[in-house]
Amino acid sequence: MVLKQDHELNMKRFLRLAYYEIFKVQPFLLIALAVSALITLFLTLDEGLEVAERQLYIMYILGAYFPLLIALLTNNGLMKEKEGHTAVFVCSRVNLGVLWLRRLILGFFTVAIFMAALLALMNHLIPGLFPPIFALTLLIPVLFFSAIMALVSALSCSSAAGAIAGLFVWTLLYFYSPAIYSRFGPNFFPFLEWAIFFRFKAPIGALPVNKFYYAMLCLLLLAITFCLHRSNLQVERFSRQ
Amino acid sequence: MKIFLRSFTAQWKLFVRDKVNWLFSLLVLVVALATNPISELPETTALGYIENIARITGYIASLLFVILYLRFFLSETAKGHNHLWSRNAFGDDYLLLKAGIGIVGFLTLIVPTVFVTFVLSISFFGIANALSAIWVWLLILLPPICFVIGLCSLIGLLINHVLIASGLIIIYLGFVLTRSVNLGNLLIFMPSLQMNSALIGFGPETEMLIYQRLFYVCVSLVLLTIAVFITDLRLPRVKPEHSWIAVSAMAVLGVVALSLSIRWGSELLNLQRLRSAEPNLQTRQSLEFACAGFESYRLQLELSADGAIASGLAEVELTSGRDLSALSLLNTGLAVDRFAVSGGDPLRIELQYHGSFVVPYYAYTVFDLPKEIEQIGYAPGAYLETNLIFLQKLGEWHPYALCSPDEITLILPADITINYNSADTEEIDGGMRRLQWQQPSEEILLIAGVNYQIEDQENQRIYLSPDAGHREDIRNEQYGTFFRLVWQHLNEMEVSDFALIPLPLIKQSFLESQTLTLIIPERSRQIDYMWPDDEVGYSLNVAMDVLQAWWCRQQACPDLADGLFSKGVDNVYSYAKGENTSEAEQEDTSSLPLIFYAGMKLVEEAEVPGFDQEALLESYRKWMRNEQALIPFNFIQEDQETLLRLADFDLQYGSEAFWDLFLTAYEKADEGWIEKDVLLELIGSVSEQADGIETGP
Questions:
Q1: Nearest alpha carbon to residue B526 among B544, B513, B547
Q2: Cys staple from B504: which of A67, B74, B499, B522, with CB 3.0 to 4.6 Å?
Q3: Cis bond before residue B532 (omega within 30° of 0)
């Protein structure tokens, strides 16, 4: 009876868990969010720039670079257990798949709150600077690069391999963005929010379709990653390395 | 030393045994092969291929290597390595060892890419070209990797956390790498080059590239020296006592590296300033009118072995007292030594100058330029380096660049190979060659110093680059074919013994009619950008280029060439044709449909596969009826009408009558341009003549 009570997920326990997972496990994520917020707010308030320039630079940061940064920082969520040689211990308490998903969801919940607050603040400072829907759509590229890194990390049991793979994909997509845009159009362009303000002048109406495709792809990648972690065979592979 | 070497070997083994590092190697190889498909190799040059692979590898590798290197660099700072830090030798050599392994490890990891590239280069371009490309690899790839290693070592030591350090550095590098700026930007450690020529390599970019690379090697050394000084503070080691000799040596190295960075950096900025110069369009316009007042214009130029202008003297005699002091268009790399005005009527002006000729960016950039700049063609009019010396009659190597000189004397070392010259007299005296031109009529005065391979084919002499590839063969074949056809139609005789000389930097061809030499652009952004994707479009461009070379053989008309090759992308033309020309006349661009139609006829005659003249004309008819159609040249309404009028005329009276019309139109043209009314009048009169012949008694 006592044991059952201990494992009940009440609000207090959830908050304690969330605090631990966000502030103790991923403190660098918070630092990155704070730095990103400072830079974007500085740009928002920079009167030396035209509003169109501010929109472009902010989306250049939030739409193209921010996803990479967050993906790099969240990729280590589970892999640090391996690198700290605590994976076997953790595995005895909680399924690795569940742990990974919990950390991912909490991480993205934090990013989502940050994004909503940041966009609200920017729109408060300059009314109509960005469409409010960006608070949601900007999360998809973050999720996309995180999913790629997480999948490769899970397959290779190395966060470095995941980071390299994610960075490689980002580099290709970024450097070849003009070719990708002209070949596949706005519906498949990975940095659409940036493209709306950049010289591509992508139509804002392409957002729902684009985000739907990428969200589906992310869900697929995340599902595969979850299955890989959930089987807990990873622990065996971790301990062998 | 022995311990260091043993540690070095051990660390290198650790680095190469890490499977993740080979993922990097695989990705670099995949990118190198995917971005340069084997099927496209015959269409490129050895230098172009290697430069492209080295640059792309550099972009990708600079970013990915951050993760690998930081992981490797900080691997012993994590828990569980205390036994290593308890040994002083490990801590002493740590930075040197890691940085050294960084470079050697990187070279190890790119071995597969280099090997595959090398094998492909040998098979497609020959062993000599493949070997000569090694310096390109070293020049392009090593400095950025040294910089990444220096930066990662310093930031890694300061932050001591792989994730945060790599995130920061990647964001910084990504930001720097994706900025589209030119070589002179001190932040850009991996520049993208705009020039690669089989004849002159990186050409005008070479000097800046070398300064840029030296700057980054020195900056990397500065970063590493700073890292050495903070090593004791940031590494978990027993703090040792350092000998003052070691500390002084490091300090001296740091100061030397910093001084050299500043020196190369300032050299780079200085060159950047010179190369960023834009053409002074206002002075050009004023000078064009001032040239009419020149009674005589004599030039004397002495070149040194490296192509620099040792001394230049321009002597002008003027009828009017117009002030020429502000009208000089002398190149930014040249310094005026003396400017003297004497006499009354005529007024005599002497201007002495010297210096190194600098080719500005706008003259060779691959990016689109404003129409006003595109219209002046290759305005510098010269390239003066050891591997190529070329002079155009009109160019910034003399102060009144748009005025045709009456007399030119050029003195240059006799051991410089002359590939082509249009001089009237030539003599060698005391190891110097003296060339003289009196009232030069040809546009290209001299081409020297190039290592051409000369090939004599049937009735033609072709100058080839040392590693002539498939692309060059196709280009020469096309130019040869169209030149023969043009000569046959417009001079009414078979061409015999003509020469074809490719020249870097120029934007359109020049026909030197006395020597029967067609000087063609080695590569031209405007002419061959579509090759090999659109062979018909390329053939049409080459045909138009040959026609404009013939059409402009007596006076340079770069604005007409721009009008032809911009193909109506920006069809609001305004050509300066004379002081008294009205605005409506200035916008008259009827030469464009005439030359375009003549080009179409040549392509049809050359039987270029895939070309259908009738279908193309039908597209223009549809366009005129406001129906949807794909047209290659977006003419203004008046010019479309002229084009269709020419087509009807050709259909009705035949090819011979069309070429007669073309010849007559040429005689009526003013600086390359013919007015629509004049052209239509000609069509009418030639039609009448033809009708007269057909229906006459």
A1: B544
A2: B522
A3: yes
d(CA B595, CA B126): 40
The predicted model scores a pTM of: 0.83
In chain A, what residues touch B178 (CB-CB under 8 Å)? Answer: 174-175
What share of chain B has pLDDT > 90, as a percent?
37
Q: Which residues contact A157 (CB under 8 A, 6 or more apart)?
A: A79, A82, A234, A237, A238, A241
Q: Which of residues 130-169 of A touch B (CB under 8 A)?
A: 156, 158, 160-161, 163-165, 167-168
The mean pLDDT of chain B is 86
Give the pLDDT of residue B641. 87
B194: number of Cβ within 10 Å: 17
Min Cα distance A93 → chain B (Å) is 24
Mutate to test the interface with B, among A68, A171, A198 (most CBs of B within 10 A): A171
Whether B353 and B302 have beta carbons less than 8 Å apart is answered as no
CB distance A72–B166 less than 8 Å? yes
Dist CA B604 CA B543 (whole Å): 10
| DSSP 8-state class, residue A151 | H
Q: How many CB pairs under 8 A join A and B?
A: 61
Find which of B14, B15, B23, B65 to mutate to test the A interface (most A CBs within 10 Å of its CB): B23
User: Does residue A195 contact residue A181 with C-beta atoms inside 8 Å?
Assistant: yes
Mean pLDDT calculated for residue range B336-355: 88
Q: Which of B658, B667, B666, B647 is nearest to B686 (CA)?
A: B658
Q: Tell me, what amino acid is at B605?
A: E
Q: What is the tens place of the pLDDT at every residue in A112-137?
A: 999 999 999 999 999 989 999 999 99
Give every CB contact of residue A94 below 8 A, 6+ residues apart in sequence. Answer: none
Q: How do the domains of chain B map onto residue ranges?
A: 2-275, 281-448, 453-695
CATH number of B281-448: 2.60.40
Four-way CATH pick for B453-695: 3.40.50, 1.10.10, 1.20.120, 1.10.390: 1.10.390
Question: Hey, are the CB atoms on A174 and B178 less than 8 Å from each other?
Answer: yes
**Mean predicted confidence (pLDDT) in B101-128:** 90
| A72 close to B (CB below 8 A) | yes
Chain B interface residues (partner A, CB cutoff 8 A): 19-20, 23-24, 27, 31, 59-60, 63-64, 67-68, 71, 161, 163-164, 166-167, 170-171, 174-175, 178
* Segment B680-685 mean pLDDT: 84
Q: Closest CB to B67: pick one of A28, A156, A167.
A: A167
pLDDT at B380: 93
CA of B388 to nearest chain A CA: how many angstroms apart?
Answer: 34
Helical segments of B532-675, H only: 535-551, 558-565, 583-586, 591-605, 613-624, 637-653, 655-668
Q: What percent of chain B has pLDDT over 70?
A: 93
Sheet strand arrangement including B444-448: B382-384, B389-392, B444-448, B418-421
Interface of A with B in 76-105 (CB under 8 A): 76
pLDDT at B574: 40
Token output for B394: 């009109």
- Count CB atoms within 10 A of the CB of residue B414: 14
Give the pLDDT score at B573: 42
- Would you say residue B458 has pLDDT above 60? yes
**Segment 102-131 of chain A within 8 Å of chain B by CB:** none
Nearest CA among A111, A110, A130 for reference residue A121: A130
Residue range B144-165: mean pLDDT, rounded: 91
pLDDT in tens, A38-66: 999 999 998 888 888 899 999 999 999 99
For residue B349, which phi and psi values (nearest 5 degrees)? -125, 130
Pairing of strands B425-429, B389-392: unpaired
